[in-house]
Amino acid sequence: QLPSVGVELRRGDDGKLDAFATSAVAGLKYVVEITKSFRVGVLPYAEVPIYSEGWKTLGAAVGLKGLWAWDLNEVLALSGNLGAVVSGFGASEADLEPIYLASLSLGISLTERFGTFFEIYSFADRDFTLFPVFDGGATLLLRPDVQLDLYAGVGLTDESRGMNAGLGATILF
């Protein structure tokens, strides 16, 4: 999977909405089909943050995710991942703190090119403080190798970041 670029909307401390590119991600996904309906995989990746003016750059990140996907039928699929990412490479105040990730998603294929999804995911810091988020969105396959994602979500705890929305594009090679 190479590359992916996200654009996100966030309400800042001043109450104004800010739109910015979140990051550029490049990775190599390797997937093994266990059965016709169940797959597992691994995704090592690197991420370079891209922030609009006023957002602090936290440096580049490297991560590794273990992935799984189960096609329940022609329309519904469950998927998830577990992983970790270390960020701060190249930042002036690098901490290199690991962040742990987990997700569970339900995907719904509405047509061959258009779908929707609902997902709960969480980040955890080194103290295992959870930052859970619920989101949903739509996917549009423009071509067999280009997909657009539109999403919106809300944090589920005070530690989570409130509301977010965004648009992502992924190009497969």
Helix and strand arrangement:
Elements: E1 4-11, E2 17-27, E3 30-35, E4 38-49, E5 60-71, E6 76-89, E7 98-109, E8 114-124, E9 130-143, E10 146-155, E11 163-171
Antiparallel strand pairs: 1-2, 1-11, 2-4, 3-4, 4-5, 5-6, 6-7, 7-8, 8-9, 9-10, 10-11
- Gyration radius, rounded: 16 Å
Strand content: over 45%
| N- to C-terminal distance | 7 Å
Mean pLDDT: 81
Secondary-structure element sequence?
EEEEEEEEEEE
How are the strands ordered across the major sheet?
1-2-4-5-6-7-8-9-10-11
Q: What is the count of β-strands?
A: 11
Count of alpha/pi helices = 0
Helix content: under 10%
Low-confidence stretches: none
Class by alpha and beta content: mainly beta
Identify the overall geometry: globular
Taking the sheet with the most strands, its summary is: 10 strands, antiparallel, barrel
Keywords:
173 residues, ten-stranded antiparallel barrel, 11 strands
Q: Brief overview, please?
A:
The chain has 173 residues and is an all-beta fold. It has strands at 4-11, 17-27, 30-35, 38-49, 60-71, 76-89, 98-109, 114-124, 130-143, 146-155, 163-171.
In words, what does this structure look like?
0% of the residues lie in helices and 69% in strands. It has strands at 4-11, 17-27, 30-35, 38-49, 60-71, 76-89, 98-109, 114-124, 130-143, 146-155, 163-171. The chain has a ten-stranded antiparallel β-barrel with strand order 1-2-4-5-6-7-8-9-10-11. Strand 7 and strand 8 form a beta hairpin.
